[in-house]
């Protein structure tokens, strides 16, 4: 039997919308991010209804996305994995891409 691994990204956060690095900062989804997660869930229902499980970072943005997907696919167990947490970006957290580019000069 062939297996598939489907990787998805969390919905939009305020930092994503503003073009900021967020790293391990634990922020939730924007209203748009929730809509994106719902659309993702519907796509997964139609294309991957035979999935075996959901694995998620415990960070709020990822967990919100995973729970929205799980609501659409309630037969799937949700496993939180701390090893899926994004890197802590230290002083870069909250900075824009442009700011970091300018600092390199």
Question: What is this structure's SSE topology?
Answer:
Layout: H1 14-18, H2 31-47, E1 54-56, H3 60-72, E2 78-80, H4 97-103
Helix pairs in contact: 2-3
**Percent in helix:** 40-55%
- What is the beta-strand fraction? 5-15%
Total DSSP E strands: 2
- How does the helix and strand content classify structurally? mainly alpha
Q: What's the alpha carbon Rg, rounded to whole Å?
A: 16 Å
Termini distance?
Answer: 53 Å
Strand order of the largest sheet: 1-2
Largest sheet: 2 strands, parallel
Helix-strand pattern, N to C?
HHEHEH
Please count the helical segments: 4
Q: List segments where confidence is low: pLDDT < 50 over at least 5 consecutive residues.
A: none
Q: So what's the overall shape?
A: elongated
Query: What is the averaged pLDDT score?
Result: 93
Describe the 3D structure.
This protein has 105 residues and is mainly alpha-helical. The chain has a domain at 25-85. It has four helices and two strands. The protein has a two-stranded parallel sheet. Helix 3 (60-72) links the parallel strand 1 and strand 2 (78-80). Helix 2 (31-47) crosses helix 3. The longest helix is centred in the middle third of the chain and has 17 residues, at 31-47.
